[in-house]
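Sat 14:20. Reprocessing the chain from the morning session after the first attempt stalled halfway. Input below, unchanged.
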Amino acid sequence: MSRVENVMPGVPRPLVERLAKQGYHFVGRYGMVKHCHWLHESLVTGGKKHCYKQAFYGVPSHRCVQFTPTPTCNLVCLYCWRIQPTDIGIVWREPASLDYDEPRELIRMVVEEHRRMLTGYWGNPKADKRMVAEAFRPIHITASLDGEPTLVGAERLSAMIDEAFRIGFKTFFLVTNGTMPEVLSNLDVEPSQLYISLSAPNERVHRLVQRPLIPGGWGKILESLKLLKTFKNPTVIRMTMVKPHNMVDPEGYARLIEMAEPTYVEVKAAMNLGGFNLRLRRENSPRHEDIKAFAEKIAELTSYNVIAESPPSRVVLLSRLKKPIRLI
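Finished this time. Tokens:
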């Protein structure tokens, strides 16, 4: 039986097949989990190579789970690694909602599949076996893999966050495109760190780069940015940069940052992975020196300072703090 026959009902089979070919593992009806590059690098280098989240916030790369509760999104960003229907010649209006999995059961299934995917490392001669054993006990989970997690609604998302904490996760990062402020304002449980992707300094660039499928998307993003002040846990504006399309108008970005007052600003290069390569060229992925120069412009225009950087991940961290808060 094909691996994709009984998963993601209503999603076009060619799209599901492409996701499977990219290494996504399906969980329940619409969930997905996938090991990231840095988890692998950390295991086979004994922790010498790791993600910027470890360098900045203390989150160990080899103990991280990356998942999504939905394959759909209401934006079709130029730079996204996600395979979009039009990338493979499919005309499909992505639904605003689906018959999603029971949220607590989904989290448990995600962890089970994550562990099953790790079993091959026991036979990998390069893998540090002590770290492999630790990887089977993940302590960090991120909802950011594919699709827009807030589309599942505040009740489901709150239950996922609560379940993750209940079964032993220390941190839960929620990464959203900011188009569902009503979900963010109605969460019963806060994530450990909330990210809002800000990939444009104004509505014109938003339409060009993020290509919204919904009306009023830019206004909704502005609403979400204003909500950041209401969260008790750390918040982040993540500026995903694609050269030259949105590396413009630093003054516009600066105004939005000062309005939102996040704990951090991450200025990060869009990486030429997955669907990015079907829409853009390698040179559209900024070099670290490009990112650093743009981040320094933002720092000059705001009350935020550069406090850390990770050249391998091509990201620069700004904050009003002197150093990032270690979450683990």
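The first strand starts at residue 25 and ends at 27.
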